[in-house]
């Protein structure tokens, strides 16, 4: 029902804005993306790059302006806009500036959400059909398939007309994302670190004779 908005997934929108309004980059950033930070010794050499129109990569000759810091940098949770913020949509922070600079970041952040409509009247739902609404603390360490497996496991342990099954499911998802305490911190079953972010989960039953609102 949703997808993440990150500097990576919205790279082309951000790069297009930087291309159309280069004054927003303040001469400190380039709208182009490179596989790694370009070094002065690489001036005149060829390197892979991509711009706002490209999903793949091509080669270009490195020029002086390419030495500027990229508008979008990093991968995964370390991806950043203007080396400062890891989100691309949100409210507030009108005075947020680039670290050690006076450049505003707000022009690159959108306040428009993605809206998807799911018409409940178009489908038949049973008590086990739920919508899981969670924060990054859940989704950063838990895949869709893992959440679905937890849904099946927890709900099958309760009677369909027991409203506490949905609370138990939310608790199981939160505890699963947090992990268990070990010698080297909170760990998941695969021994990776548990979530260090806020973990909030809502389980919303979609319908059926055993569901509760």
Automatic annotation (TrEMBL):
GO terms for molecular function: [pyruvate dehydrogenase (acetyl-transferring)]-phosphatase activity. One of its GO terms (cellular component) is mitochondrion. Residues 1-206 form the PPM-type phosphatase domain. InterPro entries: PP2C (IPR015655), PPM-type-like_dom_sf (IPR036457), PPM-type_phosphatase-like_dom (IPR001932). It holds the Pfam family PP2C. It comes from the Eukaryota. This is Protein phosphatase, Mg2+/Mn2+ dependent 1J. It comes from Microcebus murinus (Gray mouse lemur).
């Amino acid at each position: 029902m949703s997808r993440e908005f990150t500097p990576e997934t919205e790279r082309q929108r951000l790069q297009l804005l930087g291309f159309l309004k280069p004054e927003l980059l303040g001469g400190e950033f380039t709208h182009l993306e490179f596989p790694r930070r370009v070094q002065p010794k690489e001036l005149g050499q060829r390197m892979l790059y991509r711009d706002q129109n490209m999903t793949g990569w091509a080669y270009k000759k490195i020029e002086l302006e390419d030495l500027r810091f990229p508008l979008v940098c990093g991968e995964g949770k370390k991806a950043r806009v203007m080396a400062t913020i890891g989100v691309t949509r949100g409210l507030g922070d009108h005075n947020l500036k680039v670290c050690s600079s006076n450049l505003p970041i707000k022009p690159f952040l959108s306040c428009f959400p993605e809206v998807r409509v799911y018409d409940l009247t178009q489908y038949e739902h049973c008590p086990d059909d739920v919508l899981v609404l969670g924060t990054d603390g859940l989704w950063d360490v838990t895949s869709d398939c893992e959440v679905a497996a937890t849904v099946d496991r927890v709900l099958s342990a309760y009677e369909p007309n027991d409203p506490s099954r949905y609370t138990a499911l939310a608790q199981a998802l939160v505890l699963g994302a947090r992990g268990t305490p070990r010698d080297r911190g909170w760990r998941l079953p695969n021994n990776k670190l548990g979530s260090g972010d806020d973990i909030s989960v809502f389980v919303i039953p979609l319908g059926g004779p055993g569901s509760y609102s």
